[in-house]
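Notes, Module 5: Reading structure tokens.

Key idea: the token line is not a picture. It is a compressed description, and you learn to read it the same way you learned to read a sequence, by spotting repeated patterns. We will look at two proteins. The first is printed below with its tokens.
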Amino acid sequence: MRTAEGDARTPLQLNAVPHPARGGAAVQLFADWQTACAHLRDHWLTAPECQAWALVAPAYTSLLDPGDADARYRYAEQARITAGSSAQPLYDLCVAAVALEAGDAARLQWVQDDGRVTAAMGTSGVVLLIEGVVRTAFVAGQGDPQATKDGQRRRLERRGLPRERPLRSGGHGGDPHGPQSRRPWEDKWSAEERLYYRVFRPAVQLVKRAQHRSRDMRGGIVRADYALLKGLLPTRSRLKYEDWLELRRACRPESPSGPPQDPRPAAVTDGTGKN
């Protein structure tokens, strides 16, 4: 395959994660390299969700600064013109993080299959939706719905990441957890406390108030497949920090705070779903 730069390159190599509803089975993370790159762009490289992913997978900051919007845009563009090969390290980090979330979901039974889609959630608040392959894996409660709706229009109007609102001058905006927005006591939080209060708890709140099928202002049907999970999660009164920490450490006794700093996926596919 030739990229816009005219170089022959190997496309991003896809991988699989454990299927949370089918013990021992694996499911490919995204259908093809194009879908994988779009997902990385819209979730791992777009604020504010990129800030949450940096807490879920701390090795993120060894690849790029999640607070630098220009750097994230350049990373997404380079992935596009290299058929995803330049984004292999970020995709591999995504595989490692999602695999752990799938394992959490299987252990805690935070997984539901309605015959069309399988929904699952792990202890970091990452929601997986599976339809043949993992269709999406996102940090619930971190996105901006209006920015998503405006994404297609803004992609045509300006340089930047489609789902991200315009940032202040300097290109280093988009961090809802930056120094100016933090409360004084947050600087004393541990890594686990940051993950719980900034990522997991907002995810639970979103899932708990979601409706599986609703209608928008124009009468169109809106599906929120992650609402399948709302009856499976404990009540919020039973998911306080101490409760969550106990569940987290039961699921990940060797690495309670998240994925390893230097993940190495065990198997790589050729992009067709075959090893």
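Here is the second protein, with the sequence above and the tokens below, as before.
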Amino acid sequence: MRRIAPLRIFFCVSIFSYLLAENELHLVEYIEIPKELQSLRLKPDKINWSMRNSFLLLDSYNSELVLIKNSGEIQFSNVLGIRYNVHGELIWAGNSPIGIQVVDRLENEIIILDLNLNLIQNISIDFYLYPEIVQIDTWGKLFMYSSTYNGIYLFEKNYISKEPFIDFYKIFYSNYCIKDFAISKDGKLAILGCDGILSEFSQNGLRLASTPIEIFNPIFLVPLYDDWLIINSKGDCQAIYGSNKISLPKMHSEILDVAELDRSIAILTREQILVLNVR
């Protein structure tokens, strides 16, 4: 773990201390974005956890995937990036039981890599789903949001269901849009709508509850224990079943993405990755 200046520790911890009613988030790791990425004009805007104390960083504009260890060491895939596919648009990458899965929105395919980012196989999505947001559950099933088909679709065992897991036409309305969605460890799903309302669903896709969001311009949604955490790019947070609204100090730079794993949350900015644990 890299040494962090005391003022920076205080600043970061003060952002997330006393976030939940019974638990606190504490800064445990700080990783600078390597300057090598800047020299290559790469700007990661998506983050997810990987194996072996590492992270997957995705530059969706350049369709480039980078594996970064907590030591700062980086590794590139030799099958991704605009030098290999000028027409694709990578929107999500994450670990699964069959390897690292990467979703290409424009090519309508799922790319499966090994832990060293080598290609295992490409799986085509059978119809023009053009997914925009993707999440994976505990059992390795992919859930894909498509504004084209106005719903969330399930990909399991190399097969994409043509019937929506959640049909927005039936549950909401025809032009309903979302900013993010997330899946808890027990399989429940929550949707952060553009209307500023969080909607919760059961494992079977049945609607359970709806809660209005109080923070301005909510963007990110992550599960945390039996709660849902909503965060905006400034670092303002709201825990649905904990504290109603948290007023936080202004971040040094805007939050680009947030990822959750067990008791930890990783926050990506232009300059760094912050890892916070719940105690």
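Summary for the second protein:
- The chain has two domains: 1-32+177-279, 47-124.
- The two ends are 18 Å apart (CA to CA).
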